[in-house]
Each structure stands twice: as structure tokens, then as C-alpha cells.
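Let's inspect one such protein example.
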Amino acid sequence: MRNVSLFFAIVLICPVLIGCGGGAPSDFPRTFPVTVTVMNGATAISDAEVFFTPEGGGDLGRFTIRGTTNASGAATIRTIAQNHSANGAPEGTFLVYVVKEPEAPPERPQEELDLMDAREREAYDRQRARELQALPREVPTKFSRPNTSGLRITVEPGRGGTLNVDVSQN
């Protein structure tokens, strides 16, 4: 019994003594503070996802660079890789895009969907897709793709960056 207790004590204590191995991966870039504000005229857009993609591709494409807007329309950008993240974005020029899907009406109950035959379900799915496509968008589709948004930001060492986006300016 004593040996079993000793074994469990070692198993539980060793990870604490050794550590989690946290810290940034060796190739994680240095980041600089970046804020993006998303507005529709004078109205802040909350809960929009803001993404950065490196202009011209490159090594930075391995990282997810993103943020979510708050009630004031401001998103603090973070750079994410595997199990590590840091506030800010790496140095470079980025295409920026903003995504906010409209709130979809609830789907029919699963029990009701299960009773449909294949043809009824296909017709229902097509109709629902049309209804979802017709929902009004707070952020026009143009802004939801890096190649159509027309948004760019250059992040400079020591300065970071700020971008103000007004989605009413189609």
C-alpha cells in the first residue's frame, strides 16, 4: 500500500515540478498591439470576428491572427499558434476581413426533421438556405473575404496598428 501511495504522489507531483512546458514556440513571432474598430456609420458592431491574413502569404499564414469586437465595436487582435497566443499581431502588412453572420431563426425541432423523408428534407434544407441567405447583414458580405474587403493594415515594430472600419462605406 505504501508503494502505491508513493507512486501516486510521484505521478501527481512530477508535472508540477517539471512544469507544463508552456511558453511560446521558438518560431512564434514578436507581436505588437493592434486594435480594429468596426462601425456602421455611428453604430458600433459587436460580436464581429476580425481576421488578418498576411498580404502575399508567407510564413505568418501558419498563425491565426484575429479578434472579436466588443460592445464599442473594438477588437483587440491576438496571434494564436497551437497552444500559445499573444496579444497583438506580428510585423507586416495584412489583408483584413470582418465576419458577422446574421442570427438565424431556430431550425425545426429534430423530432420533426427525423419524420421527413429524403425529398421533404432536401426541400426543407433548400428553403432554409434561401431564408438564411436573405437575412439582413450587419456586415455586408463584401467585408467577409480578404480579397474583396479592401481592408489592409501595416503593423510596425514598436507602433502596432489601428484600423477603423466603417461597413456603411460600400
Summary: The CA atoms of residues 115 and 144 lie 36 Å apart. The two ends are 73 Å apart (CA to CA).
